[in-house]
Automatic annotation (TrEMBL):
It comes from Reticulomyxa filosa. The lineage of its organism: Eukaryota, Sar, Rhizaria, Retaria, Foraminifera. This is alpha-1,3-mannosyl-glycoprotein 2-beta-N-acetylglucosaminyltransferase. Keywords: Glycosyltransferase, Golgi apparatus, Manganese, Membrane, Metal-binding, Signal-anchor, Transferase, Transmembrane, Transmembrane helix. Its EC number is 2.4.1.101. It is found in: Golgi apparatus membrane. Its cofactor is Mn(2+). SUPFAM superfamilies: Nucleotide-diphospho-sugar transferases. Belongs to the glycosyltransferase 13 family. Its main location: Golgi.
Length: 342
């Protein structure tokens, strides 16, 4: 790691994260800058690969190079547990960097290399500074610039790294049940044009528009494959009002209840796609935020802010950092409303 440490994180417990970030930068620099390869496939040493792993990446390489709205191609699906996947040929876009077996182009590396993090990237969130490691940094909007990664429905990698730098976070509950693809897919016979922009948005929009809207509570009453009629819809949409509601749904289904940069893992524009109950069923969770409700909440917050500001002015002995904190919260909320997908 050339002896450097992120300020404030010099303790030995953070050494693994410094080494990981430095190692990624060294490898990417060596292969893409010095040896001038046009793309690199990054594969961690605690991953088992599927039988069609290399063929999968070989046929997605031209897709990645041809579409500037793509950030990477990944072999990983965060929601790839056995009960939620079925079709080994279906691929999706996600605007949350998946990691765990991923391909990057030299063009993308030229953009990322000058600002690659030493180990951590501290992002202010309200009054708290959140630690972000290299992969969290890569998920931030400043890096993604609204670009997506391609990921499979059925995982092409399986992690057996229960004990690592992150101390096996989520392993037993979410990573151990991941299903590794066993089907030898002939990727040369697959049509992949739908993954390109703008075809993908048209494809996913059609899927959503043709699906049946149901409440989350109605999942238990959907027919099973043995009792379903030919006229029943195979695609369903469940709307969620905010991220907390989605996380509640995720916990009920034992999906990973985690977000990255405010987005559900594996999601694309707020849509999380899984299969449930029977192989031909898709459950789509769609992001929907009521703008009027948000603006009313913001006006209520402003009223509270100004009242508290007046109170602080009357108490001269209060520390000025409280006033700064209030101002910072106000700015962050304004930024959120401007960037919210209304």
């Amino acid at each position: 790691t050339d002896g450097r440490r992120q300020a404030g994180f010099e303790e030995p417990k953070w050494l693994g994260y410094h080494k990981i970030a430095a190692h990624y930068k060294w490898v990417l620099t060596k292969l893409l800058d010095e040896r001038q390869y046009t793309q690199v496939l990054m594969l961690e040493d605690d991953l088992e690969v599927s039988c069609d792993f290399f063929d999968y990446f070989r046929h997605l390489t031209p897709v990645l190079h041809s579409d500037p709205t793509l950030l990477c191609v990944s072999a990983w699906n965060d929601n790839g547990q056995a009960p939620f996947v079925h079709n080994a040929t279906v691929l999706y876009r996600t605007d949350v960097f998946p990691g765990l077996g991923w391909m990057l182009t030299s063009t993308m590396w030229k953009e990322l290399a000058p600002k690659w993090p030493l180990a951590f990237h501290e992002t202010p969130f309200l009054i708290i500074k959140k630690k972000r490691f290299w992969d969290d940094w890569l998920r931030e909007k400043a890096q993604t610039k609204d670009r997506s990664c391609i990921r499979p429905e059925v995982n092409r990698v399986y992690t057996f790294g229960e004990h690592g730098s992150s101390d096996g976070q989520h392993f037993d509950r979410y990573l151990k049940p991941i299903y590794l693809n066993k089907q030898l897919v002939d990727w040369s016979a697959q049509q992949l044009d739908y993954l390109l922009h703008p075809h993908y948005d048209q494809w996913i929009d059609h899927l959503v528009q043709s699906a049946t809207v149901i409440d989350f509570q109605a999942l238990s009453s959907l027919p099973s494959s043995s009792s379903s009629s030919s006229s029943s819809s195979s695609e369903y949409v469940i709307w969620y009002d905010n991220i907390d509601q989605y996380l509640y749904f995720a916990r009920q289904l034992v999906l990973i209840d985690d977000t990255k940069d405010g987005k559900p893992r594996g999601s694309y524009k707020g849509i999380v796609t899984i299969r449930l109950l029977r192989p031909q069923n898709k459950i789509l969770f769609l992001f929907f935020l009521n703008k009027l409700k948000s603006n009313q909440l913001y006006q209520l917050f402003l009223s509270f802010y100004y009242l508290l500001e007046i109170k602080l002015k009357k108490q001269k002995n209060r520390k000025t950092r409280y006033k700064f904190t209030l101002h910072f919260i106000k700015i962050r909320l304004q930024h959120f409303l401007k960037s919210a997908p209304f």
